[in-house]
Amino acid sequence: MPDLPRVAVVGATGAVGRTMIAILEEREFPVSELRLMASERSAGTVVNTRWGEVTVEQLDKADPSGIDIALFSAGAARSRRYAAAFTAAGAVVVDNSSAFRQDPGVPLVVAGVNGHAVASHEGVIANPNCTTMTLMMAAGPLHRQAGLARMVAMSYQSVSGAGMSGMDALMHQSRVLIEQREALVAGTWEDPGNEPFQRPIGFNVLPMAGSITGAGHTDEEWKLVNETRKILEREDISVEPTCVRVPVMVGHGISATMWFDTPLDPETARRVIEEAPGVALWADDHVATPLDSAGADPVLVSRIRPTLGQPGGISLWTVGDNLRKGAALNAVEIAELLVA
Length: 340
Ligand code: A2P
Prior knowledge:
Layout: E1 6-10, H1 15-26, E2 33-38, E3 46-49, E4 52-55, E5 57-58, E6 69-72, H2 76-88, E7 92-95, E8 124-126, H3 130-146, E9 148-157, H4 164-178, H5 181-186, E10 212-213, E11 217-218, H6 219-232, E12 238-245, E13 252-260, H7 266-275, E14 279-281, H8 290-293, E15 299-306, E16 314-320, H9 324-339
Parallel strand pairs: 1-2, 1-6, 2-5, 6-7, 7-8, 9-12, 14-15
Antiparallel strand pairs: 3-4, 9-13, 10-11, 13-16, 15-16
Helix pairs in contact: 1-9, 3-6
Residues 11-15, 17, 38-39, 41-42, 59, 74-75, 78, 163-165 line the site of adenosine-2'-5'-diphosphate.
């Protein structure tokens, strides 16, 4: 990898893609040339960057020759279709989609937790799902301390996890419903629409994030199960997931209860979290919320407490900016590991 790589952002006009560009700039990532790609809709748009004005290219017409690192966040279908051409042209693809996360030859990396896995890549490195990423920032260090065996995890996922259209939907539905105070109480509210979600998200909670698969779990819930096992390198961790969408713009929260090979007390857990990279422990009298996490790099942890029914475990709350550590920041951190 050259010291000054040529970098492409694929899906550069999306919620994560824009954050990728901002984070490359903030962290002064060494870039000799930046290329931006998106769909036909945005081709020709000019973006002002630290490296000059860059014209967005149409992905299906772009020539990947010369690119050293390609940060993909244009959806799994685009990753499946185009990543191979980029790697064949010599690029390392850091892919934010779910397309390759479970491929045995593709490391699934949370910088600060299993960064060592980057070394085994064969051209593609996968960025975990934003909910799993946020949880792993706390679960990873605790796993190293005591060996994670069992976990019940409930997510409270923001609408930006569904991209620009998720954020547009929350704003639109909130505007429609904010005028209907009495109707919201009486249950006579006017349907504000729901796309891209299954039901309205304004003033509401959807007890399923993602789409239902198999035995009634959503694809988001399966990601939490399978990605946890791959990142923590332990196939027999048992995970009981429930993924919920909440009317929050940015910031995914996860309430998790974990049991370990050896009992873990809250005091030790607090010390481990305080010493972990990329995580900040917030006091329970100023508990960390999604609003606090938006725009912040660290994942925030609060409410570390002992399990009650079956002692020896830990319950905690963790929340992080799903566009930053949950997606774009981790992708750039992976790129930094490649350059280092
Ligand atoms: P575009 O803005 O041109 O549609 P988000 O999930 O936040 O909506 O972002 C999705 C990103 O993926 C955007 O940059 C979007 O580009 C890009 N994208 C979506 N469909 C395609 C496609 N068929 N080819 C290339 N890029 C795509």
